[in-house]
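User: Teach me something about this protein's shape.
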Amino acid sequence: MNPETKRTPELEELLIDAEADDDVVQHTPPHVTRPWLLLLGLILVALNLRPALSSMAPLLSEVSASLGLSAAKAGLLTTLPVLCLGLFAPLAPVLARRFGAERVVLGILLTLAAGIILRSSFGEVGLFAGSLMAGASIGIIGVLLPGIVKRDFARQAGAMTGVYTMALCLGAALAAGATVPLSHYFGDSWNIGLGFWILPALVAALFWLPQVGQRHGAHQVAYRVRGLLRDPLAWQVTLYMGLQSSLAYIVFGWLPSILIGRGLTATQAGLVLSGSVIVQLASSLVAPWLAMRGKDQRLAIVVVMLLTLGGLFGCLYAPLEGLWGWAILLGLGQGGTFSLALTLIVLRSRDAHVAANLSSMAQGIGYTLASLGPLAVGVVHDWTGGWAAVGWIFAVLGLGAVIAGLGAGRAQYVQATCEKR
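Assistant: First, the predicted structure itself:
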């Protein structure tokens, strides 16, 4: 970093104590009576933040054929949950202030379970309504969990965030790889394959129940942060978050269908997606550590995005004999792009209050932008009747992410003012 942006120990302490709430920060360290139970609950909740997204992709062709969905409708089906991640994220701090973060997480886990069962049991209307509920639930919980990690594990925030991210990726991988075999095991029923993921949601709710009612008693001070929407650097961070996420959700939503179109079975395609996501466990931990060793993060951003694009083009165009190599390359790239997007939010913020608001901006606007990618893939496939033209979407999103990342990766702070309310 530049000398004027060097982080002091005091700033480090502020950064790890930041709340995920966009305008409320805890100032008194909480007392956690059973941290092991809280950690187990966090892991189980995080495991449920991707199965509702990645379980649909391997069955998308079968679901579309069963319900008579066009490619455009299938694209909307993959887009809707991602769109909800952005649209419903701003509700998280509002609900947390009203009911408490622990109660909200429990209630939204039950809403997630209801969305899963709705989309798997009530035809086309239920499919879309349940997908909306699931995406909204994931968007709200996804904002709250990092704040709980920072509040209750302040001294181990980095390690706990790594565990949380790994659990999130593991949940995505399990759902991508196991959904089709489960549907075949239970009589070739895609309904059961999708509905199965209500079980881990209910298990997570059961283990989270002890956290409800615990009062942390910390004194809260409200702050207002101004100027982010006028700051170019804040928009570059947001655009990088959104564009790399768009590629990620195209992979979740469409990669198995692309591979099935190239000759793989649904089970094989789901396993390729699952394997690629598992690889993300390693790069999501290593990429930020390596990026911090340089004077800024621009080189790291370019490298992981090139890996991502190489993997995507390989899966789309290269001979199938080398498919697993391209899938591994894709996983290495996307694990790095996602973790760097989260890292940039902290590094580009001067203090904890700005970091919390920049996080809200990047997730709310970024995920809304990200939802356009899966929709565009469905529309292009419907127009062309094939998958070859989808490569142009990969190229445009990847180039945009590199351009935004070159701005976001500079060792500077966003220009924003912070004042008490």
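Now, about its shape. Residues 123-152 form the longest helix (30 residues). The chain has 18 helices and three strands. If you'd like, I can walk through any region in more detail.
User: That's plenty for now, thanks!
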